[in-house]
Design brief:
- The chain is built from seven helices and no strands.
- The chain has 146 residues and is mainly alpha-helical.
- Among the domains are: 53 residues, no CATH class; 31 residues, no CATH class.
- The longest helix has 22 residues.
- The protein starts with a helix and ends in a 14-residue tail after the last helix.
- The mean pLDDT is 76.
Length: 146
C-alpha cells in the first residue's frame, strides 16, 4: 500500500470501518512507514480529543435557556399566530374569528350597547312599566315564541 492511499483511509481505520484486508494492509504499512505512523498518531490524538469534548454535554439549564432564547427570537408575533389560526381548514374557526373581529370593531367604535334590532324598544321608562303591571290580569303567552 502506498502513502496516499493510506492517508485517505486513516479516518476509516481509526473508526474501524474498513474490512479485514484493508485494515491489515494499513497496519502493515504503518509498521513500516514512519511518516504515515506519525500522521496516524496525530489524527488519533486529535480525534480522541474531539470525542472527549463532544461527549461533554452541557447541563439541562443551559439547554433550557438556549431553547427559550431561540423561541423568543424566532417565534412569530401574536398577530401572525392569530392569522395562522384563520388559515386552518376548519370553517368554524374562521367564522368565530370573523364574529370576534366584528364584535371588537363594534366595541372600539364606542357602540358597546346592544345591537339594534335584538331587543325591542318599549314605550315608557322601566318604572312606569312596573307601575302599569296588573297581576290580576292574565297574560297571554304567544306559543310561537316558545
Amino acid at each position: 500500500m502506498d502513502c496516499t492511499r493510506c492517508d485517505e483511509l486513516l479516518i476509516d481505520y481509526y473508526f474501524g470501518e474498513l474490512d479485514r484486508a484493508s485494515s491489515s494492509a494499513i497496519t502493515e504499512h504503518l509498521a513500516g512507514c514512519g511518516q504515515c505512523a506519525i500522521a496516524h498518531f496525530k489524527l488519533h490524538d486529535s480525534l480522541r480529543h474531539f470525542d472527549a469534548v463532544h461527549r461533554q454535554a452541557p447541563r439541562a439549564q443551559v439547554h433550557q435557556k438556549l431553547r427559550q432564547q431561540v423561541a423568543r427570537q424566532f417565534r412569530p408575533p401574536w398577530y401572525r399566530r392569530l392569522l395562522r389560526l384563520s388559515a386552518l381548514p376548519i370553517p368554524a374557526y374562521q367564522t368565530v374569528l370573523l364574529l370576534l373581529g366584528v364584535l371588537l370593531i363594534w366595541t372600539l367604535l364606542g357602540r358597546g350597547g346592544p345591537l339594534p334590532g335584538f331587543f325591542p324598544r318599549t314605550s315608557g321608562s322601566p318604572s312606569t312599566l312596573i307601575e302599569a303591571y296588573d297581576a290580576s290580569r292574565p297574560v297571554q303567552i304567544d306559543r310561537h315564541l316558545l
